[in-house]
Amino acid sequence: MAVVFGVQAWQTRHVPSGTAPELAFTVLRPDGSRSNTTLADWRAAHPGQPVALHVWAEWCPICRTEEHSVTRLARDWPVLTVAMRSGAPETVARVLAQRELPWTTAIDARGALAQTLGFQAVPAFVVVDADGHLRGASVGYTSEIGMRLRLWWAKLF
């Protein structure tokens, strides 16, 4: 267990502590519409509750194993996925449609959003609590129960 926690601590060492950084991005919605927004504005649509950020890439095989967990999680919690280095909005939209993923997705064609969040690899997961603080960051495969527990913990404490 110490090794697992040590590896996670090392992998998330660049994730900023405290308030989530301000991020501006193009968001692609499940209905195919797009708009420019910020993380603060997106969070404002979900007042008083924690939200999840799931960083993934279309070329990442581990991300593929998490897809159904993220989809189920998004039925119960606000989840913003971040398509890191996965191409232009059209490309990401095509991937989401092919894989039947009804996700709200921020386009991160150059990886700048992931880098600002402190992630250098995918998949990555982090909770932004109701006060706007980053909590419970992880890199690598995260189980659905692990995602849910992080959100639940952020809601309680």
Automatic annotation (TrEMBL):
<dbReference type="GO" id="GO:0016491">
    <property type="term" value="F:oxidoreductase activity"/>
</dbReference>
<protein>
    <submittedName>
        <fullName>Alkyl hydroperoxide reductase/ thiol specific antioxidant/ Mal allergen</fullName>
    </submittedName>
</protein>
<dbReference type="InterPro" id="IPR013766">
    <property type="entry name" value="Thioredoxin_domain"/>
</dbReference>
<dbReference type="InterPro" id="IPR050553">
    <property type="entry name" value="Thioredoxin_ResA/DsbE_sf"/>
</dbReference>
<feature type="domain" description="Thioredoxin">
    <location>
        <begin position="14"/>
        <end position="157"/>
    </location>
</feature>
<dbReference type="Pfam" id="PF08534">
    <property type="entry name" value="Redoxin"/>
</dbReference>
<dbReference type="InterPro" id="IPR013740">
    <property type="entry name" value="Redoxin"/>
</dbReference>
<dbReference type="InterPro" id="IPR036249">
    <property type="entry name" value="Thioredoxin-like_sf"/>
</dbReference>
